[in-house]
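TASK: fixed-backbone design
INPUT:
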């Protein structure tokens, strides 16, 4: 039984991608440990079919957080023995993980959840971007195995570094049975409350949309978005509800009762432009039509499966028109919902994990059997 250790900077309870990956590898016979970050408000770890460990830090964000976490992660990893490979998600946990793999003479795995050097928080800060680009240029060519969330990003990495890059998409697991759940008619946004997600324009649109908006997640804009919603009278009227972090099992129930999902992004850099978020598949699996932006990965899937309406621009007027048009056209809405239910039979984790397992099996090619004379 090969032992694998993965490191992330996220709270393990909410990292659905790593939960799926680690569970699939554990189910295939690997012994897996996932190491992440413990926040002051972190809830107890949820039960998983793999080992979990969280590191406590004094700092919660900024340069001091990344420095502290990487030092704590390195010290932790130096005390770990007997792992057949070490992996990380994104650049912010890459250097200690690479070093531990190098010291142990075992494979190093890089899972790019995004194009870290092109996210808006990094692109707008030249000195910070130069630092992370240096880390990327050091780490990516040295990875024994590298993969990312979508084919467009994989091609970009391949062009940038001239090395193979696999694709393991953030697709939801197909439930064995999908009982019918009555829609409660609300609009749902799930994910980080960060720049470029269309959230400011969405709040401005809500007074003209005859439905509630539920927001699940937190981020850099949490306080300002709550403040603007209060200014617009949306909190007092109950038209907008911020639910904060929601555990994946509870989030699936919230998603199943939604009428429309929001999965839009501004083109604020190559990471957003080539993104393929798990929320797209979460809405699809719940049979919930969604709004998407005209970005390559989403357009390609929508042209094939027809599960969403495309919003040409992230303005209050465009979002109002798209939401009212979708909610006010029952025939079109039901058509998209039915397409979602059909698409999930093809787009599901049970299929996607086969590529994941193939990539890991290739790390250790089967040794030829010796035949006795």
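OUTPUT:
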């Amino acid at each position: 039984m090969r032992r694998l250790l993965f490191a992330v900077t996220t709270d393990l309870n909410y990292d659905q991608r790593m939960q799926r990956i680690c569970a699939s590898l554990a189910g295939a016979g690997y012994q897996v440990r996932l190491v992440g970050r413990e926040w002051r408000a972190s809830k107890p770890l949820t039960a998983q079919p793999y080992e979990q460990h969280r590191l406590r830090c004094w700092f919660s964000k900024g340069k001091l957080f990344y420095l502290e976490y990487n030092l704590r992660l390195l010290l932790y990893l130096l005390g770990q023995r007997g792992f057949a490979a070490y992996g990380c998600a994104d650049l912010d946990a890459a250097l200690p993980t690479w070093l531990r793999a190098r010291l142990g003479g075992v494979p190093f795995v890089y899972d790019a959840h995004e194009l870290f050097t092109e996210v808006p928080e990094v692109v707008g800060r030249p000195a910070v971007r130069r630092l992370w680009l240096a880390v990327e240029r050091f780490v990516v060519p040295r990875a024994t195995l590298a993969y990312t969330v979508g084919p467009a990003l994989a091609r970009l990495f391949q062009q940038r570094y001239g090395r193979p890059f696999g694709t393991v998409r953030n697709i939801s697991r197909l439930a064995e049975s999908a009982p019918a759940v009555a829609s409660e008619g609300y609009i749902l946004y799930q994910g980080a409350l960060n720049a470029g997600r269309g959230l400011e324009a969405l709040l401005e649109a809500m007074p003209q949309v005859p439905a509630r908006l539920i927001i699940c997640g937190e981020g850099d804009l949490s306080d300002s978005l709550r403040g603007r919603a209060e200014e617009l009278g949306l909190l007092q009227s109950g038209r907008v509800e911020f639910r904060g972090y929601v555990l994946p099992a509870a989030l699936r129930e919230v998603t199943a009762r939604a009428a429309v999902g929001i999965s839009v992004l501004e083109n604020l850099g190559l990471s957003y432009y080539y993104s393929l978020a798990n929320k797209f598949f979460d809405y699809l699996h719940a049979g919930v039509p969604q709004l998407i932006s005209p970005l390559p990965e989403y357009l390609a899937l929508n042209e094939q499966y027809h599960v969403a309406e495309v919003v040409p621009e992230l303005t209050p007027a465009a979002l109002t028109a798209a939401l009212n048009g979708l909610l006010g056209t029952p025939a079109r809405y039901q058509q998209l919902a039915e397409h979602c239910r059909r698409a999930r039979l093809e787009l599901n984790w049970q299929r996607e994990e086969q590529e994941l397992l193939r990539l890991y099996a290739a790390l250790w090619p089967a040794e030829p059997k010796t035949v006795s004379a």
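COMMENT: The radius of gyration is 21 Å.
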